[in-house]
From TrEMBL:
The gene is kduI. Pathway: Glycan metabolism; pectin degradation; 2-dehydro-3-deoxy-D-gluconate from pectin: step 4/5. Zn(2+) binds at H198, H200, E205, H247. One of its GO terms (molecular function) is 4-deoxy-L-threo-5-hexosulose-uronate ketol-isomerase activity. Belongs to the KduI family. This is 4-deoxy-L-threo-5-hexosulose-uronate ketol-isomerase. Its EC number is 5.3.1.17. Catalyzes the isomerization of 5-dehydro-4-deoxy-D-glucuronate to 3-deoxy-D-glycero-2,5-hexodiulosonate. It holds the Pfam family KduI. InterPro entries: KduI, KduI/IolB_isomerase, KduI_N, RmlC-like_jellyroll, RmlC_Cupin_sf.
Amino acid sequence: MSLKYEERYATHPSDAKNYDTNRLRDEYLVQNIMEEGSVNLTYSQYDRLIVGGVVPTNKALTLKTIDPLKAEYFLERRELGIVNVGGKGSVSVDGEVYELEYKEALYVGKGKKEIVFNSSDDAAPAHFYLNSAPAHEVFPTVKISREDAIIIELGEAKNSNRRTLNKLIVSDTIKTNQLQMGMTELHSGSVWNTMPAHTHSRRMEAYFYFEVPSDQAICHFMGDPKETRHIWMANEEAVFSPTWSIHSAAGTSNYTFIWGMGGENLDYGDMDICQTNDLR
C-alpha cells in the first residue's frame, strides 16, 4: 500500500499579499489527491485539518497514522469525515462494514482503530475524499445517505449561481466535535459558488472540486476581501482557506464541490458577509 502525506503551515494575511502564482499554489492548493492504490493526505496547521483521498483498486487500503500526529493510530485523537465521489465502495470501521454509493458520506468518531477502504469494482473504483479534525469526545459512526442530508436551494439562474447545498456531516444531522462537511452542486448554466463571499474567523475551510470536465477549469478566489487572489484548479483538487480569507469560485462549466470545516464552533451560519460590489 502507498501512503503519502505532506504538511502545510499557516501564513499571515500580510505575507500572502506578496505571494506570486507559484507560491499561492504551493501554500493553498492540494493536487494529486486521488491516485489509484494510494492513500494521500495533506496535514494543515489551519485548525489541524487533514484533507486526503483514498482510491482502492485490486486490494483494500488501510488508513494508517502519520508521523505528525504522534499517535498510535490515525483516529486516536481525531474524527473523520468521508464522502465517496467515485464508484461504489465500502469502508470497514473496526470490522463493521458501511457501503457507500456515489455522493454518500460517513462520519467516523474518535477512537476507532482500523479504517479499511474497498472498491466494489476495480474497473470503476471508489474515490473516497477525507477530512479529519482533532476530537476530544467520542461520537458514534454514522452513514449519511443523500436522503439523510439537509438540502437547501440557493442562488438564482439570472445570477449564474443557482445551486443545491447538501448538509451532510453537520451539527443539524449528527454529533461531531468540530468537523463539518457538505456538498454543493451547481445547476446547469450556473458557475458561481458562495456568492456573496464571506469569511468566518472562528473556523477554517477546505474546498474539494469534482465533476469538473477534463477540458474545463475552476477559478477559486481567496484572500483578504479588499485584496483578493485567485488559483486555477482542475478536477479532484482541493484548496485550503484560512480564517481571514474569502472562499468562492467560478467555473468554466457547472461543477460540484465538497466543503469541510474545522474550528471552535458548529454554527453553520456564523459568517461575515462580503458584499459582491465591495470586493477588490
